[in-house]
Amino acid sequence: MNNYLAKLWEISQKTERIIIGLMSGTSLDGLDICLCKVSGSGSSSKIEVIKFTTEEYSANLRNRIRAIQSKEQIPARELTVLHTELAGRYASYIQRALNDWNIAPEDVDLIASHGQTIYHAPAQNEDEEHATLQIVDGDHIAQKSGIITISDFRQKHTAVGGEGAPLAGIFDEVLFRHKEKHRLLLNLGGIANFTWLPSIKSGESILTSDTGPANTLINEAMQKYFDKPFDEEGKVAASGKIHSEFVRYVLLEPYFRKPFPKTTGQEDFRHEFIENLMEGHGIELSKEDLVASLTAITSQSISRSFDEILGDVDFECFVSGGGIHNKTLIKDLKERNPNATFKDFEKLGISADAKEAAMMAFFANELVAGEGFAIPGVTEEKIHLGKISLPG
Questions:
Q1: How far is CA 65 from CA 189, 285, 342, in A?
Q2: Is this model's pTM higher than 0.90 or not?
Q3: Structural domain boundaries in the chain
Q4: Tens digits of per-residue pLDDT, 318-363?
Q5: Domain 3-165+354-389, CATH number (from 2.70.98.90, 3.30.420.40, 3.40.50.300, 3.40.50.12280)
Q6: β-strands 191-197, 207-213: how paired?
Q7: Where are the beta strands (DSSP E) in the chain?
Q8: Which CATH superfamily is domain 168-348 in?
């Protein structure tokens, strides 16, 4: 038997596993590295974040990824090269983190890598299948790190009829659903998504969906007009004025009228889309006013989603993702949602920054040691997410 298959069997029989979760979102902030201790499986899963760090991408690397992300036509060679190159970078980032944490690679059972989303393509009609593409080669991570690696978590989701996103509903329900309190978990990455967790006592079903852009349009505008990767603390947005008519035109786009649940990506919301809309309506904005208006689009599209789904229900709201650091955005969300009590995500036992990387560790644990999960609204059959790459 392959020695690594034997090791995988041993890992599956442990009472707890040490797993590194990796996450790089569409906002391209960098690679989140989360060292987790995971025990149990399925509804009895428990996860503890031991260490967390983010390896920030260089401006050059960020621009190279941005050049192939969500584009209809891209250089095939650059796509292929980055698929392999990023894996090597991931492995070196992991080694640096382990050295900083004084942890030996052999003490880590698994690496769980989400990869870098390049294109997200939900089916547009009944003749199409949902599709999504994440690069970063799991085999190269495994070979260079010497650690069994799980990757490609979204592919099984699409294979059974899902859109490949968002995945958070399963994770959120297992770890964060409350017996008596209604909760909503909002993630502000490049795209905003949420999981609605009505109390267990209510007997209602959970719902997970994207709402539209979170940071992606803001970040692109900041990069283009301010040569900065993001709006630090929302200071630029706070200095500008919101162009209400422009915001209204954007929120009339067909995506916002689709029923829930739904997914989207930068394919729908890129800076070119904003420029074309402004030109078509003869709108001219200062760069500060543009960032203020894009921030308002994020806040208003999220708040409208809450109104449509929840009405006047009172609920606790826990926010994660890079957008939590945008004070202007968070302030507006709080003002627009008086029925929500906003609480620090760390009260749930995981930091807001580490949540999505920890989620990858959760799914890797289930693949190796659990029976899998049914996908709400997609399949009643339990399935596993992820593919296994062995170092040798």
A1: 16, 28, 34
A2: yes
A3: 3-165+354-389, 168-348
A4: 999 999 999 999 999 999 999 999 999 999 999 999 999 999 999 9
A5: 3.30.420.40
A6: antiparallel
A7: 16-24, 30-39, 46-56, 110-121, 131-135, 149-151, 183-188, 191-197, 207-213, 315-320, 340-343, 373-375, 379-383, 387-389
A8: ATPase, nucleotide binding domain (3.30.420.40)
